[in-house]
Design brief:
This protein is of the alpha+beta class. The chain is 30% helix and 36% strand. Helix 3 runs antiparallel to helix 4. It is elongated, with a radius of gyration of 16 Å.
């Protein structure tokens, strides 16, 4: 049996962007994650040690957001790769990651631009 974990609207200040100025002044970003994992005996035994730890997931995302990239596509890929490399990575069956840049510098009013990667 599988279960889904969702971490929504994690917000970070980061320095991703294709323009040098973006990498100097930074911007606000949000990350949304949807993880599908093998349930195993987590619910049956009520044992948090067997579960995908939400705090660890958040820390992985935060660490990857600190690595400056030119594209948010690369940021999303880094997050997904880091999650699969984590100690609970073998439990993961599917990861959907949305990285959004809030108020991107496109010359007009725009709420956000997002990319979604899945593996």
């Amino acid at each position: 049996m599988e279960y889904r974990i969702e971490l929504e609207r994690m917000e970070f200040r980061a320095y991703h962007g294709c323009y040098d100025l973006e990498q100097k002044v930074g911007n606000r970003f949000t990350v949304d994650l949807e993880l599908t994992a093998e349930l195993g005996r987590v619910a049956e035994e009520d044992d948090v040690r067997q579960a995908v730890n939400y705090l660890t997931v958040y820390e992985i995302v935060r660490a990857q957001m600190r690595v400056t990239q030119r594209t948010i596509e690369r940021v999303a890929m880094n997050i997904i790769e880091a999650l699969y490399a984590a100690e609970f990575g073998a439990q993961l069956r599917h990861v959907k990651c949305r990285v959004s840049k809030l108020a991107p510098p496109l010359g007009g009013k725009l709420d956000r631009v997002s990319v979604v990667l899945e593996r």
